[in-house]
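Bug #77: duplicate submission created two jobs. Keeping one. Sequence:
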Amino acid sequence: MDNSNPSLPRFLSFIDIPGNLDMAVKGNILYADNYIDLVAFDISNPLDVKLVSRVENIFPTYFGMVVNDTAAVFISEFVETQLKQPAGTDCSSAGPGWRNGWMTFDGRSFASTSVAQPGNSSGKGGSMARFTISGDHLYTVSNSDLQVLDISNTSNPKKGEKIRLGWGIETIFPYDNRLFIGSTTGMHIYDNSNPTSPVHLSTYAHVNSCDPVVVEGDLAWVTLRSGNACAGFTN
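Kept job's structure:
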């Protein structure tokens, strides 16, 4: 979207990425999940977006399900079929669980828009983000793990350390050399002053509930809500 006039955003183009749940942008490179792969697109010309890199099998789980060899073959064949569709093809009902992941039941998100995220060329993420960028690193969370990727060469991301976080992981928010990770049972705080290997600092525990998190200054907003797959009862 062309947002040069915020009161009248203008549609420019659409990028087909089957199986996509989240994305992040640094400079002219957009990173997104394509089922179990990470893809990087050059968006310097929004009317002529180009795929510049793919990191295969970076997300071994898809919508909370472990992807076995048979499913991986099916997904690979499905992706290949979808990428051959004409531009603008409606994929809203395509494939298993398309846009029906447990994180996307209501689609609502909030962000502290006054927060200056690390790295001047990185986009801001909302409270439901599973991708975030801090400096030269992209951090993604699955249901149980934190995956670090080196994006110092923005068009050629490199897989780094994978850190076990526990189960029920939902969101990630960076602030001031810290990563704040929301889960169904609490908020984890990780120190990423060494960006290649974040270290657990502490955990704030709460009742079982879906849990978006944003941070500014010395406050973290941890929002609990019911009526979803987390089976919580607190709002």
